[in-house]
Design goal:
The complex is a heterodimer. By secondary structure, chain A is α+β, with helices and mostly antiparallel strands. Chain A has helices at residues 11-27, 45-55, 68-73, 81-85, 97-100, 125-130, 144-154, 176-182, 200-216, 221-227, 260-263, 301-322, 339-345, 347-362, 373-388, 394-416; strands spanning 4-6, 37-38, 61-64, 104-105, 108-109, 112-124, 156-158, 161-164, 188-189, 194-195, 249-253, 269-272, 287-293. Chain B has helices at 2-47, 64-71, 76-105, 112-124, 127-137, 144-151, 166-174, 179-190, 194-202, 207-235, 239-245, 258-267, 272-300, 313-323, and strands spanning 50-51, 59-60. Chain B has a two-stranded antiparallel sheet with strand order 1-2. Chain B has 2 domains: 2-47; 75-323, MetI-like fold, CATH 1.10.3720.10. The chains are: A alpha+beta, B mainly alpha.
Chain lengths: 417, 324
């Protein structure tokens, strides 16, 4: 019986995975899937998983919320390339290259990015129309300068409180690789195994954000944070300001299209590609995956991979209907649409949005591909906070992050060699 | 003579049998101590000199982890500073608060059992749940705390969203659980002979003098106990800090406590060897602080009937009277 673990997940998610497993079993009579183990109770998932791998009795397959590159660099995962060649859905050419890159380390593939929520710039069309600004996707700003000018049209302060925000420049660490790529560079170069956090265009990118904050947001990020929830998800009981029509534009992920608070919003919205920075030449997208992988010492490799392959092409459709995480595999039918959006905004709109997000995956920039991914994310978050709260200049903060990340990366690579 | 020897031999045999039986009774505990405490402690010490990620065998690094800690880890000193700040404020505040609560609970009044139960109840609430409640209370816009401050005309704070106020907010959060210490103080208060307080009162000592010169000295062993436990637990603050600040101690690393740094190093960065080195340093720091407290105890802790103390209950009461 194939055992399958996830790092966590609530009741519906886990029940959904079990239902997919029963469906898989009906198509593969020789393979049985044990009930999904969602999380490892009070113990930390990685602690248990790594200990079980070391002891030689890991689960046969896992869902990961941590970059496979990081686990692969530590010898915790099996390479999948040979298995992928004979797969029905999981063949390498069926994945957007930049998304599959998040699973690659040292020339081998260690995971399948079963879902990859892609990024888009969401905007409130009603607010645009109210100000007489063209609200079509084609008319949306193509450069950071245009976006900044447009943002000012919407931003309203009442005393020290930000009542309405136009667009708040890059303040989420998960989006930073995307903004860096829009400015023509990267934060991490997987091919060269080098961090480039303090590259001049990245410093310029952060200086641009600080200047923007100074001009439009009183140079006080703390006040901005206090004034509302500017993220794309509920924070401490506060729903996103975008839903309350207090934010004209923001960057968020594709899964929001299927969530009721967005799908059933009282106002029309649309999504545009992200504008290009002064150093960039073309718009790119970002993504946030869930990965499937086989732990080292998995006992039933062939059977477990058959399960992962099925999940990549078929199971993920049921997953999408349960929670609208974007399937990354190209074999998934194009007419798979989020029900909540179809019901509230119509099939044509839902199809347009879905096509947009799937196309975004094809123009994605590589992300999540570092062997020290989580360490780097924390260092970048630290740098970003220091810059936003003006504790350090962009250059100082990025240089320090660069030093820490490269040092951690070198240490992991040295240990491997 | 022979009979005496025979009796001694019988007694010796019995003692050995008793000792064997005793050893057998404590054997499970001894084994678990060896397996689950001594071995992990020694393993942690060994791993602190290695590069280890659980899956691959440890690789000996010598003192490199310790060098990295003090010279190249950007989060080490901020987490040390945050933990020290927290300990320095949370422990005295907690002790004073718990003692105050215990004094209130010591009053003879109707329904005191209910109050004691209510004070102890927060200890039973899971830390994650209580922290989430406090996050809502500290919300800068809609939170209860700022609403109260506004009501009395005081300026509001950013609390957990503001790097200046996030640690004080965490310290206030820590006071939520002082019911446990208060109950220990209460037990200590019950142990104080009423005759001493009565004697001091008869000799003219007021409530403050009785508290200062009778109650407080006799409570010093309990204060020592609560102080040591408070220091240890304050260095170990983890759940609340993680729920509030995540793995980066937001905002601006202001809630990045040392335990959170250890946790993220081990389970987020998979650097078990380095995390072990951090744990060793934490252990040594707590050990040193605890030893200093114990060393200082002979100066300020009063043990009834101990050689170190030249005072007795009566003398203490007399001092109170003289002061009064």
């Amino acid at each position: 019986m194939v055992t399958f673990w996830t790092p966590g997940g609530g009741g519906d998610f886990c029940t959904g995975l079990d239902n997919i497993a029963r469906d898989f079993e009906s198509h593969h009579p020789g393979i049985a899937i044990a009930p999904t183990q969602c999380g490892t109770g009070e113990q930390e998932f990685h602690e248990v998983l790594l200990a079980r791998i070391a002891a030689g009795n890991p689960p046969d397959a896992v869902l990961l919320w941590t970059s496979p590159a990081a686990l692969a660099a530590r010898g915790a995962l099996l390479p999948l390339d040979a298995l992928m060649q004979h797969a029905r859905y999981a063949q390498a050419e069926n994945w957007p290259p930049a998304v599959l890159a998040s699973c690659r380390f040292a020339g081998q593939t260690y995971g399948l990015p079963v879902t990859a929520g892609s990024y888009g710039l969401w905007y409130n069309q009603a607010m645009f129309e109210h100000k007489g600004i063209p609200a079509g996707r084609d008319a949306f700003p193509k450069s950071w300068d245009e976006l900044r000018r447009l943002s000012q049209e919407f931003t309203v302060w009442k005393g020290d409180t930000l009542q309405v925000a136009g667009f708040i420049p890059w303040h989420a660490v998960e989006d930073l690789p995307l903004w860096s790529a829009l400015n023509g560079v990267q934060l991490y170069d997987a091919a060269q195994r080098k961090y480039t956090i303090d590259a001049e265009p990245n410093v310029a990118m952060m200086e641009y954000a600080v200047d923007w904050l100074n001009q439009e947001y009183k140079g006080d990020f703390a006040r901005v944070v206090r004034s509302g929830n500017w993220e794309g998800y509920e924070v401490e009981g506060r729903q996103p300001a975008f839903v309350d029509q207090r934010q004209a534009m923001f960057v968020t992920y594709s899964w929001n299209m299927g969530l009721k608070i967005f799908a059933q919003s009282a106002f029309p919205w649309n999504i545009a590609r992200l504008p290009v920075g002064p150093g960039g030449t073309r718009s790119v997208a970002g993504y946030w995956p869930n990965w499937l992988a086989l732990p080292k010492a998995s006992q039933r490799v062939e059977q477990a991979f058959a399960w992962l392959d099925y999940m990549s092409g078929v199971g993920v459709q049921a997953w999408f209907r349960n929670f609208p995480d974007l399937p990354a595999n190209r074999q998934v039918p194009r007419d798979l649409l989020p029900t909540a959006l179809v019901d509230s905004k119509g099939k044509a709109f839902a199809q347009d949005i879905m096509d947009f997000f799937r196309a975004q995956l094809d123009s994605a920039t590589p992300m999540w591909d570092s062997p020290v991914q989580d360490f780097a994310t924390d260092q970048l978050r630290r740098a970003l906070e220091q810059i936003m709260y003006k504790v350090a200049t962009p250059r100082t903060a990025l240089v320090e992050a660069q030093k820490a990340c490269q040092s951690a990366l070198d240490k992991v690579l040295r240990a491997r060699s | 003579m022979v009979a005496t020897r025979a009796r001694q031999a019988r007694l010796g045999g019995m003692r050995r049998r008793e000792a064997r039986a005793g050893l057998l009774f404590v054997l499970p505990w001894l084994l678990s101590l060896l397996l689950f405490t001594i071995y992990p402690v020694l393993a942690t010490l060994y791993l602190s000199f290695t590069d280890y990620n659980i899956v691959q065998p440890p690789r000996w690094l010598g003192l490199q982890n310790y060098r990295t800690m003090f010279t190249a880890d950007p989060a080490f000193w901020p987490s040390v500073g945050n933990s020290a700040y927290y300990a320095l404020l949370a422990v005295p505040l907690g002790l004073a608060g718990a003692l105050g609560l215990a004094l209130l609970l010591h009053i003879r009044a109707q329904g005191m059992g209910v109050y004691r139960t209510l004070i102890a109840l927060p200890v039973l609430v899971p830390p994650v749940a209580s922290t989430i409640v406090f996050i809502a209370m500290f919300d800068p816009d809609n939170g209860l705390i700022n609403a109260l401050l506004q009501t009395v005309g005081l300026p509001t704070m950013g609390w957990l969203t503001d790097p200046t106020w996030s640690k004080p907010a965490l310290i206030l959060l820590s006071l939520w659980g002082l019911g446990a210490s208060a109950l220990i103080f209460l037990a200590g208060l019950h142990e104080i002979p009423p005759a001493l307080l009565d004697a001091a009162a008869i000799d003219g000592a007021g409530p403050w003098q009785r508290f200062r010169h009778v109650t407080l000295p006799l409570l010093t062993p309990v204060i020592l106990f609560n102080l040591v436990m408070g220091v240890i637990s304050s260095f170990h603050i983890f759940t609340q800090a993680l729920v509030v600040g995540g793995t980066t101690g937001k905002p601006l690393e202001s809630t990045l406590m040392f335990m959170v740094h250890i946790y993220r190093t081990a389970f987020r960065y998979f650097a078990m060897g380095y995390a072990a080195a951090l744990a060793v340093v934490l252990f040594l720091a707590v050990l040193v602080v605890t030893l200093v407290i114990f060393q200082s105890a002979h100066v300020w802790v009063y043990y009834e009937g101990s050689r170190g103390s030249n005072r007795s209950h009566t003398e203490t009461a007399c001092r109170a009277t003289i002061v009064a």
